[in-house]
Amino acid sequence: MKRRDFINWVGLGWIASSLPVAIAACSSVKNIGLEDWVSVGPSAELDKTGQLLAKESPVGPVLIVGTSKSGSLTAVSLTCTHAGCTVGWKTDTKKFVCPCHGSEYALDGTVKRGPAKEGLKTFAAKIEGDSVVVKLG
Ligand code: FES
């Protein structure tokens, strides 16, 4: 066998043996679409305090308020619509407050005080099994 034939033979063998691994790796990665529900945390954690902070959700930080027994959950993006700072939830006054320029939002995301003009984005949320899931989009 010539050197070139040997290299081609080894190269084809490597490709043939790697292909199934590459296909398996690609098929395990799920594309997340805007109509998908994604898990953001365990429902037990939500039930402990009535709040679940999902810092790493696909749509940025989201706060879910409610419990698995409350019937309806509220999921609100924590990204301020003024300039993108992360707002914080104030339990005592029941509003979101932005630390950057002072915008305030109600629990449903509506603006209570500017400079923000648009409300916080909200998402549908529900309990599914032992998880809290949020619908993107
Ligand atoms: S970034 Fe929130 S008020 Fe300006």
Q: What's the gist of this structure?
A:
With 137 residues, the chain is of the alpha+beta class. The protein has two helices and eleven strands, in the order H-E-H-E-E-E-E-E-E-E-E-E-E. Strand 3 and strand 4 form a beta hairpin.
Polypeptide structure, described:
The chain has 2 domains: 30 residues; 99 residues, 3-layer Sandwich (Rieske Iron-sulfur Protein), CATH 2.102.10.10. The protein is 24% helix and 29% strand. The strands form 3 sheets. Strands 2-3-4-9 form a 4-stranded antiparallel β-sheet. A hairpin with a 5-residue loop joins strand 7 and strand 8. The longest helix has 26 residues. It starts with a helix and ends with a strand. FE2/S2 (inorganic) cluster binds next to loops.
The number of domains is 2
- The structure class reads alpha+beta
Q: What is the element string, with H for helices and E for strands?
A: HEHEEEEEEEEEE
Rounded mean pLDDT score: 80
Strand content: 25-35%
Spatial sequence of strands, sheet with the most strands: 2-3-4-9
Q: How large is the count of helical segments?
A: 2
Any low-confidence stretches, pLDDT <50, length ≥5? 18-31
Under CATH, the topology of the largest domain can be stated as Rieske Iron-sulfur Protein
How can the largest sheet be summarized? 4 strands, antiparallel
Question: Which quaternary structure do these chains form?
Answer: single chain
CATH homologous superfamily identity of the largest domain:
Rieske [2Fe-2S] iron-sulphur domain
